[in-house]
Structure formats: C-alpha cells, structure tokens
Predict the 3D structure of the following.
Amino acid sequence: MRYSFSHYQESADFISSRLKGFVPDILMVLGSGLGFLGDLVEEPTVIPYGDIPHFKVSTAPGHAGQLVCGTLSGKRVAVMQGRMHHYEGYSFEEVGYAVRALKLVGCSTLLVTNAAGCVNKEWNVGDIMLITDHIKFFLESPLRGENLPQFGTRFPDMSHVYTPALQTVTRQSAGELGLPLREGVYCYFPGPQFETPAEVRSARILGADAVGMSTAPEAIIAAHAGMGVLGFTLLSNMAAGILDQPLSGEEVNATAEQSREKFSQLILKCLEKM
C-alpha cells in the first residue's frame, strides 16, 4: 500500500501516547544479532511493533520486533530491536516506515547497524566498519511514488547520506577506546540469498567494502527527512568466493555474539559524544 502523511502521524501519535512526554532524539535501528543494545536502555518503555498502527512485524531470525525507548549513555533513544527487510516481502516504503514515524515523534538522528559480508580482502571477520557511503542500484527507491513534502524535497541530495560530523565523532570514540575501526562503502543487495562470487567481485570493482541486505533504504529515507545518519557494519563473514566455504545465517549471528562487547563499547561511546 501507499502511505499518506496521516498514516505516519497516526503511528507517531500512538508511540508518543505510550511514552507519556518522553521524546527520543536518536533512533537506533539494530541488525542481525545486535539487538542486545536495546537491553541496556535505562527506564525502558517497550512497544511491540504489532501494537503500533501501520507498523510491520519483523520476521528475520534474531530480530525481537519491538521498540525500546529510554536513556542510553545519557541520550534519549528509541531502539528498534529488529528491522524490516525487502526480502521479507515488504516494499521499500514499508521497510523505512518506522524512520519517518520516529522522525515525527522527535528523532533527529538515525544510528543504524547491520551485519554484512566483507568484500575487502585486507580486512577480517569481526572488524567494525564505519559506513562512509553506500551503493544501491537494485530495484526502486524507497522514495518512489508521491513525495510527502512534510518530510523532504522531491529530489533530495545524496552527497552526504552519512553525516560527516557523526563520522568524526566515531573516529574520536574509536581512538579513545583503542578499537580498530575500518571505514568503507556498503553495497546493498536485496537478498534473501547471499551474494554470488561474481556479484561480490562486481561490488569490489565498484568500490564496495561490504555487502548486505539492509541499511540503505532506511538511510535514504532518513537523509530525505533531514536526519543525521550514522551507520556501522559488523563484518560477520567473508563474502562469497573469498574463502572456499559456504555461507550461513548461523555464522552471521555467531560473529555478532563474539563481537558484542567491542561493538557495544563503540556505540555507547559515540552516543556519549553525540
């Protein structure tokens, strides 16, 4: 279906009614195996996606499917424990629906994470990558259809989808923690199948460092709405064709679990500085 501004406003009004005066500043969209950050939120208000008008329910493994609002590292946050994906059967507009709804609730910044395949042969599984840009060629834009001017212009600039100032904050945070930080380009593929070795080679030629099945739609919608965007990729496996071994969702979640301590340290430090 196509959403009107009134749909988004109805969702935002419902969320705000549950928050009873609490207004989050930062929307956090957490990917595969990374939802544990929502468990760290102080004085949380938990809202199942199914309770929110017009919200879709996440079906991907490892996605709790709930909105957790409260304080994290001293910042007012709304944490999405689980996201919607295009491969689940949702349109790109549906995938990014929550971003617009939370923008109306009060969020001015999107912090988005994912677990993805590593394309850069010089990097390693378990590394954390700061997303500096993305490539999304496949299928339509999440902004396709009638433009809603309440969110942004018909033809938005995408020169800096990922906010430079927030990238600077991340570099400073990683430096203070002594954590190695990769920086690179995320290439979106629609999934749910993992990419083929040929697709991975093409992504590398185009300048990508990681390949995954999320993030780009939400980031485009947030940038269109004038939100700051900070993106992270946990390199959960070497992409197809680099190692002579099959890929699996279990490997993705296992790597996320092994990397949760350093990943959460970086995210929490970044929040302190935002």
